[in-house]
Design brief:
With 292 residues, this protein is mainly beta. The protein has one helix at residues 2-16; strands at residues 47-54, 64-74, 79-90, 93-109, 112-127, 146-159, 162-170, 184-192, 194-195, 200-211, 214-225, 229-236, 240-248, 253-262, 273-281. The protein has one domain: Beta Barrel (Porin), CATH 2.40.160. 5% of the residues lie in helices and 54% in strands. The longest helix has 15 residues, at 2-16.
Length: 292
């Protein structure tokens, strides 16, 4: 019964936030293709990225999230096409997002280019009322189940070792219980790669998110060794410290892992959050971005 009551509390929290919702992943600071539809235009090889996040491990009803991104570049057109799928269970809520993406790159100079992207898809939310514990009169899931169309646009500037990007996500939400700021999300990202020598490099990076009146800011730094391993640490302001590791297994596969340690207002939640990422790349004849 205790577990069911916890689930019921999580359900009430989830219902209170009926706004546009994009599952949170710590590795977004390294895998921007999930939030910025223009980011994939920086790639010249077909690729796929998979993420799995188990938040607050051992806590009943805590979010579990899955995400997949596939991108196929058409280099002669300076374009790319792909898809995103995100799925999450949290409390009694099941959410699935599926979208198609398109992106292009525009050369500015021999050392810089911009990318633009567009994404459009469907967001589906369902509540499993069979597992609910009612503290009062029961209510129908149909009141909260929903299907929404959503779209996103993204823009990026790449200049040598600098990357600056932004994205806007919009979901037309209907109903009197939605506020005017709940239909959209804003993202901003930035990073710079400092080359120390032929073997070592350091990359500070940040990702900012504005969502339904709330703000998230991840600030971190990563150390790269020979394009073989990334090690990093990030701070989600007033929320979590995030530890990263990413390894190049083969020319086709990279494996990433991150661990979130709650701090600030959530420091009393003594449950770790684990995240695993896989990146598959199908390399072909080597083509530099500026030579496409």
């Amino acid at each position: 019964m205790k577990k069911l009551l916890i689930i019921n509390i999580l359900l009430l929290v989830a219902i209170a936030g009926k706004s546009q919702y994009i599952p949170q992943f710590s590795q977004l600071i390294q895998t921007l293709e999930f939030i910025n539809p223009g980011y994939n235009a920086s790639k010249v090889d077909p690729s796929a990225v998979l993420l799995y996040r188990n938040q607050w491990t051992g806590f009943v009803g805590a979010p579990k999230s899955y995400a997949a991104n596939v991108n196929i570049p058409v280099n002669k057109w300076h374009a790319g096409f792909g898809a995103n799928v995100l799925a999450e269970t949290r409390g009694l809520i099941n959410q699935t997002d599926a979208a198609l993406n398109a992106c292009v790159d525009v050369k500015l100079s021999t050392l810089s280019f911009m990318t633009f992207g567009l994404s459009a898809g469907i967001e589906t939310k369902r509540i499993d009322m069979e597992r609910a514990v009612y503290l009062g009169a029961p209510f129908a899931a149909d009141e909260y189940n929903a299907n929404h169309f959503y779209t996103a646009v993204g823009i990026n500037l790449f200049a040598q070792n600098l990357h600056i990007g932004g994205a806007f996500h919009l979901t037309p939400l209907k109903g009197t219980y939605y506020k005017s700021n709940e239909s959209f999300s804003l993202y901003f990202n930035s990073s710079y790669l400092f080359t120390i020598n032929d073997d070592w490099a350091v990359k500070p990076a940040l990702v900012y998110r504005h969502f339904a009146g709330y703000n998230d800011l991840d600030i971190g730094a990563f150390v790269l060794y020979k394009d073989f391993v990334w090690i990093g640490l990030a701070n989600r302001i007033n929320s979590a410290m995030i530890f990263f590791a990413d390894f190049k297994v083969t020319d086709f596969l990279r494996v990433g892992y991150s661990y979130d340690l709650s701090v600030g207002k959530t420091s009393n939640i003594q449950y770790g959050t684990h995240e695993i990422g896989l990146e598959f790349t199908l390399p072909h004849k080597k083509t530099a971005q500026f030579q496409r």
